Amino acid sequence: MEMRTTTFFVLFLLSAFTSYLPSSTADVLDMKGNSVLYSSAYYFLIPQNGGGGLGITRTGNETCPLSVIQNSNSSVYGTPVKFRSDPPGFLYVGELDYLNIQLPYDLKCSGATPSDWTALGDDEKEQLYVKIKGYDNTVSGLFQIRSAPGYFLGYNLLFCPSGPRPRKCSYLAVEVDDGENRRLVVSKSDENRLVVKFKKFGERFKASA
Ligand SMILES: *[C@@H]1O[C@H](CO)[C@@H](O)[C@H](O)[C@H]1NC(C)=O
Ligand SMILES: *[C@@H]1O[C@H](CO)[C@@H](O)[C@H](O)[C@H]1NC(C)=O
């Protein structure tokens, strides 16, 4: 009955792989060193500039909080997000995966679901801002996460406009606007790229000494 066991095992492996395709690249790790999961929610904390985590707010004449910003208060975690791989079917978030970033709940006031991150151009400033879906003239694309050199468990976020893969991606950065908002933007240079760390939603924070 050796044969049957082997066959069963192979079938088991195949089914395991088809339901959760292994990522071809390194897993993205959270602040505790655990793999970041597509099924969980995370805060983006910023180790760089003395501010808090990424969140959402109203800017300009928005009546719904559609702008992704960094909280200026360093003790505020911000708004958690979840990830969706494209194509779907992965368990662990991998570096270089093309993914959607979405709020874990839908913003009813936005009129669009799911509440995904997207990019919106500002003609005056020739700048792409990271927004929550709700505008009709957004730039279609996906996001990517890459390990940030020199930062332990730190990562850069990138926006990759639609097109043939591999796509040409640009780093996200934080820029302060006229209203003192720390706006998340698609940067035109590589120099001010934002570094984020992943804090799992619902997990107790233990500051490391
Ligand atoms: C803000 O106002 C401008 C000018 O009236 C309009 O074009 C734009 O769509 C408005 N934005 C929002 C988010 O309502
Ligand atoms: C920052 O956030 C903390 C926690 O919510 C709050 O206690 C504190 O008053 C805030 N500080 C400022 C300057 O708003």
From TrEMBL:
A Pfam short name: Kunitz_legume
Keyword vocabulary terms for this entry: Disulfide bond, Signal
Stored SMART domains: STI
Residues spanning the signal sequence: 1-26
Keyword Signal on entry: yes
Keyword check for Disulfide bond: yes
GO MF term (any one): endopeptidase inhibitor activity
Family membership noted in the UniProt record: Belongs to the protease inhibitor I3 (leguminous Kunitz-type inhibitor) family.
Protein name, entry field: Uncharacterized protein
Organism: Vigna angularis var. angularis
Record gene name: Vigan.04G198100
